[in-house]
Amino acid sequence: MKAKLLGPLVAIGGAEDKSAGAGILRRVVSMAPGEAPVVGVVTTASSIPEETFERYRDVFTKIGASEVLDVRMREREDAETQDALDMIRRSDVVFFSGGDQMRLTNILGASSALDAIRERRKEGAVIAGTSAGAACQATTMIYGGPADDSLKKGAVKMSAGFGFMGGVIIDTHFLQRGRFSRLMEVGATNPEYLGVGLGEDAAVLFAEEVIHAFGPGHVIIVDSSEITGSNVFDLADGEAVTVHNVKMHALVEGYGYSLKDRRVLTPEELGAESLEQRVAYT
Fold it and tell me: Which of these, 141, 115, 111, 147, lies nearest to 129 by C-alpha position?
């Protein structure tokens, strides 16, 4: 068996089911070590942290968490407190809520709390996030850009993320908010980045060199690595971009995408091993 190097990394497209079924969140909890994991909920991105925490406390408790911790960090100094660090170190799942990803990176960037989260992942803890809590996972993240007018140079705003996953750009609420052009503009300027567009109530597990899709929603892969042309370098900011030979794939649960080979993997190719079993090889 391969050595377990890092705990599972899960990105969710937002608006995931929080009912008693809670399919995606239930799978996240099932990936944690132990039968009754402790879940630490980071509501930093949210403008309504109390309400957000209460919703997640209720659902995580119903689906098997032994304890749900309110890792409340609203200012940069909060990310240095012993209380926050102790809760992170106790958490088998660290879950980032949605909201504003720039608030997340501003408050947690270069902090002791973020260092502790990275350390917990090295120890096997699950790191998961939804919406803003998913977008921030990549080395480079999208933080803005109009969905209906993003194929213009400079329209998509990008900044540094937490770097849990390299080589990808994650966009969320992807189909519901019509964000295809955002990842096309990113691909025109950064063809090496694979665009991962997460629909609502859809998720991916990043495991080894494979992206595994799960949940009832769609995962859209936007691959610009073989584009044959673009005018982006000739343009001033705000001018319309053309880009040729962008590849797109729509994945549903059971399918995957090989980062190494840049191709879709069918359920037959991935084999009978469950998502939870694959976590052991992350």
Answer: 141
- pLDDT 10s digits, 155-198: 999 999 999 999 999 999 999 999 999 999 999 999 999 999 99
Q: What angle do CA 153, 158, 160 make, to 5 degrees?
A: 150
Q: How far is residue 60's CA from residue 210's CA, in Å, rounded to a whole number?
A: 27
Phi and psi at 232, nearest 5°, equal -60, -35
Size of the chain in residues:
282
> For the chain, how big is the Rg over CA atoms in Å?
18
Q: What is the CATH number of domain 9-281?
A: 3.40.50.880
pTM of the entire predicted model:
0.96
What are the pLDDT digits (tens) for 77-121?
A: 999 999 999 999 999 999 999 999 999 999 999 999 999 999 999
* CA distances from residue 61 to 29, 70, 126 in whole angstroms, order as listed: 10, 13, 17
How many angstroms separate the CA atoms of 63 and 65, rounded? 6
Edge-to-edge strands of the sheet including 168-171?
Answer: 168-171, 194-198, 219-223, 247-251
